[in-house]
Amino acid sequence: MQNRSHFLMAKDHPTNPAAMIIPYRHVETPFEFSLEEWTDLGLILSNAKNHLAEYKPDGFTLGWNVGAAGGQHVFHAHMHVICRFEYDPTAGNGLRDLIQTAE
Description:
By secondary structure, this protein is α+β, with helices and mostly antiparallel strands. The protein has helices at 35-52, 94-102, and strands spanning 6-11, 18-23, 59-63, 79-84. It has one domain (6-102): HIT family, subunit A. Strands 1-2-4-3 form a four-stranded antiparallel β-sheet, covered by helices on one side. It is globular.
Protein backbone atom coordinates (compact mmCIF):
# COMPACT_ATOMS: atom_id res chain seq x y z
CA MET A 1 0.00 0.00 0.00
CA GLN A 2 1.12 3.50 -0.66
CA ASN A 3 0.02 7.09 -1.06
CA ARG A 4 1.75 10.20 -2.35
CA SER A 5 4.06 10.51 0.71
CA HIS A 6 4.47 7.08 2.32
CA PHE A 7 4.44 3.36 1.70
CA LEU A 8 3.46 0.53 3.99
CA MET A 9 5.60 -2.54 4.63
CA ALA A 10 3.60 -5.26 6.39
CA LYS A 11 5.14 -8.05 8.43
CA ASP A 12 2.45 -10.71 8.11
CA HIS A 13 3.80 -13.03 10.79
CA PRO A 14 1.13 -15.25 12.39
CA THR A 15 2.20 -14.59 16.00
CA ASN A 16 3.86 -11.17 15.68
CA PRO A 17 2.11 -9.15 12.94
CA ALA A 18 3.27 -5.59 12.47
CA ALA A 19 3.86 -2.95 9.83
CA MET A 20 6.18 -0.07 9.12
CA ILE A 21 5.16 3.20 7.48
CA ILE A 22 8.05 4.76 5.57
CA PRO A 23 8.08 8.16 3.87
CA TYR A 24 9.35 8.40 0.31
CA ARG A 25 11.19 11.63 1.07
CA HIS A 26 14.38 11.07 3.01
CA VAL A 27 14.09 12.67 6.43
CA GLU A 28 15.75 11.46 9.59
CA THR A 29 12.84 12.21 11.90
CA PRO A 30 9.09 12.80 11.71
CA PHE A 31 9.75 16.31 13.05
CA GLU A 32 10.81 17.17 9.48
CA PHE A 33 7.48 16.14 7.89
CA SER A 34 5.48 18.68 5.95
CA LEU A 35 1.81 19.21 6.68
CA GLU A 36 1.00 17.14 3.58
CA GLU A 37 3.16 14.26 4.85
CA TRP A 38 1.40 14.34 8.25
CA THR A 39 -1.98 14.25 6.50
CA ASP A 40 -0.88 11.34 4.32
CA LEU A 41 0.50 9.56 7.40
CA GLY A 42 -2.96 9.57 8.96
CA LEU A 43 -4.43 8.05 5.82
CA ILE A 44 -1.88 5.27 5.49
CA LEU A 45 -2.04 4.57 9.24
CA SER A 46 -5.74 3.79 8.73
CA ASN A 47 -4.72 1.44 5.91
CA ALA A 48 -2.22 -0.27 8.22
CA LYS A 49 -4.89 -0.77 10.89
CA ASN A 50 -7.31 -2.21 8.33
CA HIS A 51 -4.62 -4.53 6.95
CA LEU A 52 -3.65 -5.80 10.42
CA ALA A 53 -7.30 -6.20 11.55
CA GLU A 54 -7.37 -9.72 10.10
CA TYR A 55 -5.16 -10.80 13.05
CA LYS A 56 -7.81 -9.50 15.49
CA PRO A 57 -5.42 -7.62 17.79
CA ASP A 58 -6.70 -6.34 21.11
CA GLY A 59 -4.72 -3.13 20.62
CA PHE A 60 -1.76 -1.55 18.86
CA THR A 61 1.51 0.05 19.82
CA LEU A 62 2.60 2.87 17.51
CA GLY A 63 6.16 4.07 17.72
CA TRP A 64 8.99 6.17 16.38
CA ASN A 65 12.67 5.89 17.25
CA VAL A 66 14.22 9.33 16.91
CA GLY A 67 17.98 9.84 17.23
CA ALA A 68 20.55 7.34 18.44
CA ALA A 69 19.65 8.00 22.09
CA GLY A 70 16.02 7.25 21.19
CA GLY A 71 16.93 3.87 19.70
CA GLN A 72 17.10 4.89 16.04
CA HIS A 73 19.54 2.73 14.11
CA VAL A 74 18.36 3.49 10.57
CA PHE A 75 18.43 7.26 10.17
CA HIS A 76 15.39 7.46 7.92
CA ALA A 77 12.05 8.20 9.60
CA HIS A 78 9.68 5.25 9.87
CA MET A 79 6.72 4.47 12.10
CA HIS A 80 6.17 1.05 13.69
CA VAL A 81 2.62 -0.30 13.91
CA ILE A 82 2.64 -3.34 16.21
CA CYS A 83 -0.33 -5.60 16.96
CA ARG A 84 -0.82 -6.28 20.67
CA PHE A 85 -2.74 -9.18 22.18
CA GLU A 86 -4.21 -9.59 25.67
CA TYR A 87 -2.62 -13.05 26.02
CA ASP A 88 0.87 -11.59 25.56
CA PRO A 89 2.72 -11.26 28.90
CA THR A 90 3.80 -7.71 27.93
CA ALA A 91 0.23 -6.56 27.08
CA GLY A 92 -0.53 -3.17 28.58
CA ASN A 93 3.12 -2.24 29.11
CA GLY A 94 3.47 0.14 26.16
CA LEU A 95 6.34 0.71 23.76
CA ARG A 96 9.23 1.01 26.20
CA ASP A 97 8.52 -2.35 27.81
CA LEU A 98 7.81 -4.00 24.46
CA ILE A 99 11.24 -3.02 23.15
CA GLN A 100 13.08 -3.90 26.38
CA THR A 101 11.38 -7.30 26.50
CA ALA A 102 12.38 -8.04 22.90
CA GLU A 103 16.07 -7.35 23.54
